[in-house]
Amino acid sequence: MDSDALLSSRAHSTVSSVIRDLLRLVDRPDMLSLAGGLPAPEHLPVARIAEALARVRGTRVGGTRALQYGPTEGMVELREVVAGRLRCPINEIVICTGSQQGLDLVARSLLDPGDLVVVADPSYLGSLQSFRAAGAELHAVASDEDGLDVEALGVVLESGLRPKLVSVVTDFANPTGATLSAARRRRLLELAVGFGFVVVEDNPYGELRWAGEAEPSLGALAAGTPAADLVVTLGSASKVLAPGLRLGWLRGPAWLTDAVVRLKQSSDLHTSSLDQLLAADVLGDTAFMEAHLGLIRADYCTRAGVLVDALSDFGGGRIEAALPDGGMFVWARLTDGSSSSDLFERALEEGVAFVPGAAFSLDIPSDGRRSDRLRMCFTTLRPDELKVAVSRLVSILPR
Amino acid sequence: MDSDALLSSRAHSTVSSVIRDLLRLVDRPDMLSLAGGLPAPEHLPVARIAEALARVRGTRVGGTRALQYGPTEGMVELREVVAGRLRCPINEIVICTGSQQGLDLVARSLLDPGDLVVVADPSYLGSLQSFRAAGAELHAVASDEDGLDVEALGVVLESGLRPKLVSVVTDFANPTGATLSAARRRRLLELAVGFGFVVVEDNPYGELRWAGEAEPSLGALAAGTPAADLVVTLGSASKVLAPGLRLGWLRGPAWLTDAVVRLKQSSDLHTSSLDQLLAADVLGDTAFMEAHLGLIRADYCTRAGVLVDALSDFGGGRIEAALPDGGMFVWARLTDGSSSSDLFERALEEGVAFVPGAAFSLDIPSDGRRSDRLRMCFTTLRPDELKVAVSRLVSILPR
Question: Which residue from B317, B316, B331, B315 is spatially nearest to B372, judged by alpha carbons?
Answer without folding.
Answer: B331
